[in-house]
Amino acid sequence: MLKNMKTIHTAAACVLSGVGAMCAGAPAIGQTVALSDNFDSGLSAVIAPGAAARTGVQGFAGLGPAGNQFGGQFLRSPTGNTVTVTLTDLPPHTGLSVLFLFAAIDSLDGTGASPPLGDFLSVSLDGALIFRESFANATANQVQSYVPPPGVQLARRIDLGFSGPGSYYTDSAYDLSADPVFHNRPHTASTAVVTFLIEGPGIQSLEDESWAMDNLRLVLEGTTPACGPADVGRQGGAHGADGLLDNNDFIVFIDLFFSQSPLADRGATGGVPGSDGAWDNNDFIVFIDQFFTGC
What gap in Å lies between CA 183 and CA 178, rounded to an integer? Predict the structure, then answer.
């Protein structure tokens, strides 16, 4: 569970001068992780869970792409309960991405044309709705309004534990961090409030239906890093920026590389900055260039 902010990518190259690092043209622009919580070792203080609680992922374990899979525990909520994340003292930025794995658990009823009528996942940023779609698990003929883009759906109407197997109690899983609707939402304020809720006339008790999230990340877009994108390591090789470029950054980058973390996928063919979905020598070339650019 990571609670500090760290810069993970830049879009402008910097060069060294006699008085330190200078950027050519615009300042280095990047992404800063404002919150990252996998719920395995506790709950971040910025999350107000309401009636939600950390729960073992059961059959959801291992679902998801490399580096972003369900595992350990996730935050499970009854329908009708709001989970609220409040961020403060944010650095200057131009957008916010809301990234998470979503578990649709047991007999969620979709849009519904008859009782129980409907279950809708609603996600809001500072009170403005950014996502509202229904999810259906109970029967094959229910209407689900959410049509996942390629790569988002991980499992659909199968038994992944909880109140199943059998009857209406099947489950579905989605990597909503891969849905562009959650990427780079316009945002510039120094605070942010993100809420998650399944609402609608069809909400029922936890034993009948519920939902969960895992690997929640809130990422600030368009930030100016204090020490460049190579500042990923802290004292003792802990993950996170510390305003220094030293051996800790190399230690952490290697850890990120071998875990196939998106944070290490920073080099494309020929050592050009940019992610390409591969973890290879190009990533090391770009990281070393970024490291010697300096603060």
Answer: 8
